[in-house]
Amino acid sequence: MRDNDWTKILGWPGYRVYRQEIDEIAKTLKLWVKRKRGNRKLVCSGCGRKIAEAADITEREVRDLSCFEYRTTVLIELYRVRCPTCGLKVEKVDQLPSKAPFSKRFEEAVGQACESASARQVARRFGLAQSTVRAIDLRYLERWAATRKKPALRQMGVDEIYLGKKQKFITVVSNLETAEPVWFGVERKKDTLDTFFKEELDQPQRLEIEAACVDMWTPFRLSIEQWTPQCRIVYDKFHIMQHANKAIDEVRRAEFFRKGKQMRGLVKGKRWLLLTRWVNLTASKRQELNALFALNRKLLKAYLLKESLDRLWNYRYEGAMLNYLQRWIDQLWWQRLSSFQKLANMLLYHLDGIFNYCRTKVPLGVVEAVNGNIKALLRRGRGYKNLRYLLLKAQIMAASRTEFVAFSKAA
Ligand SMILES: [Zn+2]
Q1: SS3 sequence, the chain?
Q2: Strand 28-35 and strand 232-235: pairing?
Q3: What distance in angstroms lies between residue 82's CA and the mean position of ligand 1's atoms?
Q4: pLDDT truncated to tens, each residue of the chain (411 aa)?
Q5: How many whole angstroms separate alpha carbon 315 and alpha carbon 347?
Q6: Distance from Cα 251 to the centre of ligand 1, integer Å
Q7: Ligand 1 center–CA 84 separation, angstroms
Q8: Cβ atoms within 10 Å of 88's Cβ, excluding its own
Q9: How far is the CA of 14 from the centre of ligand 1 (A)?
Q10: CA angle (274, 275, 281) in 5-degree steps
Q11: What residues pack around ion ligand 1 (CB closer than 5 A)?
Q12: How far, in Å, is the centroid of ligand 1 from the Cα of 34?
């Protein structure tokens, strides 16, 4: 095949192939390219300034997409320029997005593969180290983030995610309208959220926020009140039900220790059952739970309380919501369920934020969904030491889902 044909097949704009090498045993293809005659524009890779003359010539080798069964590398002739600001620098070439030895479209192929497969799978497919795949993916995501328009933040969610013994908690700020995480911060202090308001938003952007769905966690509330005083704080169902789950788990543990050996066997391993809503249980699981309740009335009462609290958000009028909550709290009398009494006190203390759900329409379940996506990523990826990478990954996941929804609607 002639160099001219290879130039067409390679398809690098402005470049032509002037030498080729095929190794049939190793199954490799090497192509040497240089600028086409008309292509003389030089740009400094440091600052983007146009430079008239080249200082000298160098060569770089990058991996490109495979050609059939042949692993393909391209050796590119590059100029170095003497830039008034940056000094001696290599020229900027569109096909080379970074200093790493890969072409732009090779990095794009790896990044796209990472959207639906784990780094380990992608590494095997492309014959790369896992760490290399992650580095390519991160650059791919950074380029994606740099070119897209950031949606305005009008309704925000603030949540915390437990990463493990070492990293402990991170604070997650999300956009409730687009269902995507916006920012991650280390720890869950007032300082943490302050940093978000200070560094990520300017004053007009802060004033644009109308509602925030948060947990009943004082540091977050204080930060929101300080930075966006006009914003309505909404204590949403997801967070309150998390507290209800904690309360039922406390009852379970207390019963486990209070009763003898026989009871322990029964309560053991039932945590998940007690935390799952009745509608989501299969017939056999319901039977299992009923058998447990037949032996322990306290657990039954706790479970019913949790189930009925869930219905509080069926009411969209403050008065009706208050009535329902009052009746729910009345049920607690004489029950001797101290963890639920504690929960009731907490709800009474945060009443205003609970009713704000009726005053400001916020989408239910978004904070929970964002939280779930991040946890799924963490499970699949095993150890995101780089929080920026985790954030971008969760963002592209949310964005591609919206695109998919928009597409299916059109169809
Ligand atoms: Zn420069």
Answers
A1: CCHHHHHHHHCCCCEEEEEEEEECCCCEEEEEEEECCCCCCEEECCCCCEECCEEEEEEEEEECCCECCEEEEEEEEEEEEEECCCEEEEECCCCCCCCCCECHHHHHHHHHHHHHCCHHHHHHHHCCCHHHHHHHHHHHHHHHHHHCCCCCCCEEEEEEEEEECCCEEEEEEEECCCCEEEEEEECCCHHHHHHHHHHHCCHHHHHHCCEEEECCCHHHHHHHHHHCCCCEEEECHHHHHHHHHHHHHHHHHHHHHHCCHHHHHHHCCCHHHHHCCHHHCCHHHHHHHHHHHHHCHHHHHHHHHHHHHHHHHHCCCHHHHHHHHHHHHHCCCCCCCHHHHHHHHHHHHCHHHHHHHHHCCCCCCHHHHHHHHHHHHHHHHCCCCCHHHHHHHHHHHHHHHHHHHHHHHHC
A2: unpaired
A3: 8
A4: 788 999 999 999 999 999 999 999 999 999 999 999 988 889 999 999 999 999 999 999 999 999 999 999 999 999 999 999 999 999 999 999 999 999 999 999 999 999 888 899 999 999 999 999 999 999 999 999 999 888 999 999 999 998 888 878 999 999 999 999 999 999 999 999 999 999 999 999 999 999 999 999 999 999 999 999 999 999 988 899 999 999 999 998 888 777 667 667 777 778 888 899 999 999 999 998 998 888 888 899 999 999 999 999 999 899 999 999 999 999 998 888 999 999 999 999 999 999 999 888 888 889 888 998 898 888 877 667 789 999 999 999 888 875 544 444 433
A5: 16
A6: 66
A7: 7
A8: 11
A9: 22
A10: 75
A11: 44, 46-47, 49, 83, 85-86
A12: 22
Q: Calculate how far, in angstroms, residue 109's C-alpha sits from the geometric centre of ligand 1.
A: 29
Q: What global pTM score does this model have?
A: 0.83
Distance (angstroms) between ligand 1 centre and the Cα of 55 equals 13
